[in-house]
Target: Integrase catalytic domain-containing protein
Amino acid sequence: MPLAVYLLTVQKFGGIPVQTVSDKGTETSKLAAVQCALRETFQPYLPSDTLPPHVFVKSVYNITRERAWRPLWAQDLANILFRYETGKFDAGYQPENSIHAGVAYWLWGKIVQEHLDVVVKEKNTHKIRYQCRVTMPTGGRPEDFYRRPQKWHGHDLLIPIPADTIDRLVAEHVRPELFQFGTDEIVNLSSYLYEQLRRPTTTLNNGWSVFRAMMDLYEASNLA
Model:
């Protein structure tokens, strides 16, 4: 998973950072190898001995970053889980029914992903007040700092990677089903039912109502 996320991010932005950092977990070894290979190929002039492409650190140095995920759970995802747990039986959800389980997994996975997309947008567009005594950029939005670093006395250090190279790596290392919610059969069925309902807006407040409508349509259409 770390390598897949890394490659898709590189594909999205068209390049790699000068350096990546991770703990020493085995799941990051492939990420480090690809990062090193790409930098040595497309920016061979940076000294690897003093500025290595990837740095492994002890897990204790990663705690601060990992703790930063806690508010996301406490403020957002816990509410979704609460609505999921408290509403499923009123919606007639039958966990032993494979269709019910599959469609619910697809639908609520969609709800979580859409909510995370909103959170990312809010974080990237939230303006940080100006603070004269801090070293990190302030007085703008995170997306401004990234897209126009020179305005805050920074530099764009992204190392461009040819699109065909990163597309090939994505094809080799990112399984198509990695980010889909369910088997191909469940995804196709759920997508069909959702389209037939004219793609209703899905939120944590109406998730089970949409599920019930999808199941009613499934039963009425003699798809069982």
